[in-house]
Structure formats: C-alpha cells, structure tokens
Amino acid sequence: MQTSPSNDLEALVDIQRYQDWILKPYSPYLRGSVLEVGAGIGSLSMHYAHSVERAVLVEPEGKRVAVLRERVAHLRSAEVVEASIESWLGANGADGADGAQHETFDAILMINVLEHIRDDAMTLRRLYERLRPGGAFLCFVPACPWLYGTLDRLVHHYRRYERKGLEALLREVGFDIATLNYFDIAGILPWWFAGRVLRQTAFNAQAAMIYDRFIVPLMSKVEQLMPPPIGKNLTCVAVRPMSETARS
Asked: What pTM was estimated for this model as a whole?
C-alpha cells in the first residue's frame, strides 16, 4: 500500500511504538501549558494532551484540522488553532491570531516541522520568546543532509540537519541544550534506499508498520542504553534559561 503526499500522516497514524519512542524523552517536560506546532491529525497530541493543563495545537492544513478537532473534542485541555505557526505568532512582531503574541508556554513541541520552515532561525527566535523562563523546546528533525532524497522532496523538506549545525542554531537563539542526540540508526538504510536508490514518490505504509512492529521495540531499547553515533533523526531538548545571565 502506498500513499499520496496529502495522505501520508493519515496512513502512518498506526505506528504507535515509533510515536511512543519519539515522545519518551520529552515526557518529563510535557506539563502545564504546551504549544504543539504542526499537530497534524493529533497522532502525537493524543499521547499527552489529556495529562497537561492546556494544549494549544496549531495546524495549518484544513483537512487535518477537521480530523484533529474531532479527535480532541473530548479533551477540555485542548485548543485547536488553524494557522501556520508564522501567522499564529504574528508577522514582523505584530500580534498573531488569538492573541498569540502575549501567551507563553511551559513547553513547545515541534516534531518533524522545523525542516518545513524556510526561515527556521527567525521562527526559533519567535518561539523562544513564547517560552517561559525554564521552559523547554522539544524538537525532532531529520538528520544527515546526505540522506536528502525523493521522500524529503515529497513532504517539502527544506533541509536535513547536522548535529553541530542544529546546536549552533539553538545556542545562537539563546537556548541551553539539555539533550541533543541522534535517533533511529536503523532507519538510515531504508530511508536512503527508498529515497536515494529507488527514488520513491510515495510512502509505503505497510513497510512503516512492519518497521514499527519488529524493529522499533528492539532499537528503542538499544539506543536508550547506547546513544547512536549517527541516526536518521535528531532529538533535542533545549531550555530557555531562567535569566539572561544564565545563558551558556
């Protein structure tokens, strides 16, 4: 079974083990008021939104927003905003939608989103301002620029990140780095083969579910014991210092 670009999130909604693996290092920080950027159809939101005081879920695509609203309708903590993060934050310092300019959060969750934003540095600076002192920016991005292929183009990635480059970008904004690790070393080969060798132009949902069932349970345990020297993604927890003088 293969899917079109517009349906890839819906087709991959059942990779629960992979989603749990992504969110595990972030779980201590998902508390209080949380902003999730690019919430999609709520595949990740459903893992944590019930346990926080407030979850603001920002998603720009109307069809996904409709599904997202339905999925979180029973959660009093969840608020869905149909907007791009740029428009929600407000252009050129002006107030964004729903008074976003004045609201701050305990955590900002950004999973597989930053690579879709042309001016990632500007967006990070504005998100930094939306974090309360001591708040955490929880970021998950594709790694290894040499892996960039047809699957990246399919989902409109502007880039894949190098570890040193992402760290430098976050520190320049003002963040302290709590953790920054490679993630999913086993995923490198299938992503490279699909996107660089076969040059696939659709996601294979069946292959993703097989990977989720058989590979993720093993590799999540291995990588917890031994962080890999390289991986298909980077997972990061960056913290806004309690004071400006606390910056490193």
From this structure: 0.91
